[in-house]
Amino acid sequence: SGSGSSDFISEFIKEDLQSGKYTYVHTRFPPEPNGWLHIGHCKAITVDFSMAQKFGGKCNLRFDDTNPEKENYSYVEAIKRDIKWLGFDWEDREYFASDYYEYLYDIAVKLIKKGKAYVDDLSEEEIREYRGTAVADKNNITHTPPGRNSPYRDRTAEENLDLFARMRAGEFADGTKTLRAKIDMTHPNLVMRDPVMYRIRRATHYRTGDSWCIYPMYDYQHPLSDAKEGITHSLCSLEFEIHRPLYEWFINEAEVFPSRQIEFARLNITHTVLSKRWLFRLVSENLVNGWDDPRMPTLAGLRRRGYTAEAIRDFMSRIGVAKTDSMVDIAFLEYCLREDLNKRSSRIMAVLKPLKLIIENWEAGETEELEAINNPEDESAGKRKIYFSRELWIERDDFQEIPPPKYFRLYPGNSVRLRYGYIVTCTGFDKDPATGEITAVRCTYDPETKGGNAPDNRKVKGTIHWLSAAHAVPIEVRVYDYLFSAERPMEVAPGGSFLDNLNPDSLEVITGAYGEPGLAAAAEGDRFQFERLGYFARDPETSGGIPVFNKTVGLRDTWAK
Ligand code: ATP
Ligand code: MG
Ligand code: MG
């Protein structure tokens, strides 16, 4: 297992405990409630909670909710539900950065008094222009020419205190003033060039309503929220590495608890996107059916698709935690899923594209009960009854009028084993003369072969699944392909969009399918292995009264071990 590869974080933590920098370990998982959790978050959750656990510490759940426009309670609730489902517990340690607005304001005042922050009248665009950008020279080496100081940079602390108080009081229009940290406009790291700490925004926040019209920026809010909670190790993904000097600057200048930021690689998976802002676009533009669409990499989507929390946690521990970003093959996630589903899923028979099979030497109206094993991997799952009768459903694919080479299923004259039933021999078929469509296959059964064994040790190569037509229940089946055809959907040509990489055939709805009677009683989330077809989970929806099943994953492993 790759769980040892998060050791670089453990090593940092051990050093900090040994040096006496900290006497305890306290981490946090800090989602912004602007969308539902995706499988990338599972990596952060796993790292945050498992590091705390490893060192006998605690992990907070903190909502980093300081962007009034995009956040709401429904996201808070969805995030909490999904963390619990994954199997982690923050107990009573639930916090909101929006509860810290007064504290953050006070620290801003402290920084102004120290001469470390100032009110600027430059517009957002001017700030960007004064900051400057990185440029590549003719040898393609990047330089960051120094930026320029704002003409408002040298305001006195007194003037700044007055202006900042009036910003808060609502005297100025949105976007006309900001509070900026006074660091260094020539710093080689652009993040350090007097970053904005507060902006004026008249927007109603889902928790604080209209009580504030100034909102703190993430880079200011995050380190101070960590410090307020006594977070020792603030573990985050690699895109924050370049922000670390600023994290440390705020902690030092504010003279607060010295939380330490440590970065680890972001999880990327082929054929999908793992960032809330991109997933939000799929949802808001109706390119999927909501956050829990079974094609989505959200926890809710994966759960609805039939993923187990155990499989996801197993995947996390196998991929480990690295210091550099990498792309994980989605086939590996599916491999971990199959390993788990194989152990826990009841086997059952379903026919997705049905064709009638008529047993000519079986009396009409006669039913025989047979026994089937629920799970060969788990004896305690027991056995169930299945019914055999004159008219069965088989897969259309399991009959060929003219068999291709190496075809061992039904064709005129050939014999197959009906799983748990009898050996049958094909005697003919019915064809609609108008359409050429095969409407039924005819056969005879051998009464000596109950259970599928021939007393004369005859070789019968093919075994197919089937249902008694009189007993089968109708089901709808939804089969999914990757949401994006491209392996790396975010790699797009200039002027293109990641949406161009969407797979137009990612959903196939199969109506007219049938299953064993047991499927009618399946509860939402119940998981099955449909014999020979793959793993399926009962969707919360019904379609015109008919239960819907999602294909979770196929049986065959495409992961090259
Ligand atoms: P957004 O696109 O809105 O920034 P996000 O998907 O990055 O959304 P956040 O709420 O910003 O989600 O992230 C919460 C925490 O989860 C952060 O600590 C972040 O580092 C971590 N995280 C988010 N995505 C991943 C990922 N793909 N791999 C590892 N960690 C991640
Ligand atoms: Mg974010
Ligand atoms: Mg993010």
Automatic annotation (TrEMBL):
Glutamyl/glutaminyl-tRNA synthetase class Ib catalytic domain: from which residue to which, for each copy?
A: 25-342
One BP term from GO: glutamyl-tRNA aminoacylation
**Quick one: where is this thing mainly located?**
cytoplasm
Give every tRNA synthetases class I (E and Q) anti-codon binding domain span.
463-539
Q: Keyword rRNA-binding, does the record have it?
A: no
Q: Supply the SUPFAM superfamilies for this chain.
A: Nucleotidylyl transferase, Ribosomal protein L25-like
Q: Where in the cell is it found?
A: Cytoplasm
* Reaction equations catalysed: tRNA(Gln) + L-glutamine + ATP = L-glutaminyl-tRNA(Gln) + AMP + diphosphate
Q: Glutamyl/glutaminyl-tRNA synthetase class Ib anti-codon binding domain: which residues?
A: 346-446
Under which EC number(s) is this enzyme classified? 6.1.1.18
- GO terms of molecular function: ATP binding; glutamine-tRNA ligase activity
Q: Tell me which family the UniProt entry assigns to this protein.
A: Belongs to the class-I aminoacyl-tRNA synthetase family.
Q: What is this protein identified as?
A: Glutamine--tRNA ligase
Query: Which organism does this sequence originate in?
Result: Breznakiella homolactica
Source lineage: Bacteria, Pseudomonadati, Spirochaetota, Spirochaetia, Spirochaetales
